[in-house]
Amino acid sequence: QSALTQPPSASGSPGQSVTISCTGTSSDVGGYNFVSWYQQHPGKAPKLMIYEVNKRPSGVPDRFSGSKSGNTASLTVSGLQAEDEADYYCSSYAGYNDFGVFGTGTEVTVL
Amino acid sequence: EVQLLDSGGGLVQPGGSLRLSCSASGFTFSSHAMSWVRQAPGKGLEWVSGIDGPGATTYYADSVKGRFTISRDNSKDTVYLQMNRLRAEDTAIYYCAKKQWRVPSTLDYWGLGTLVIVSS
Fold it and tell me: CB distance from A70 to chain B under 8 Å?
């Protein structure tokens, strides 16, 4: 199973918005509403930020939102803050096991 | 509070073996599938292996199939990853993660990770 495709980097100034794409196929992203997003700060473990395309776990700020169109999912971070600078990974169910496939990762820089 | 404490990493020679452990607390362990995810130095996340709640069904990435074995002891709230015939490309931080109940491909809690270095 191939990794989902994400842009290597994205950036924005404090207060602005940044959107990260996650492109798969009709066998994963496009076929199911089970896309999740993880935030990872340097040297730290990943943290779940979005699941089932657009749901936020308790404690995740509503500045983080998710969407999907066709085979591409997106994560938008609104009102960028310095603490949002991190790597972000998408993941999608792909139908062949219960654990899915990860994206290639995007490094978000707050300018 | 959910906690996952992964351990067992270290330096091992190519061809050698290592067993990772992940001790869980704060949730009904036997009800949740568990997974191992790794991250090579400077690289992205790679799903490695998963196991269902009862321990009856296991899953592996092609890159480790036939060399790694995932198991769990629900009486000890612990999941394991037995790694045999290790290669240099297995060098990574290995994270234990809990799968969200009834939500495919969603890992809602992660351990801090344990570093495995395969080198002579």
Answer: no
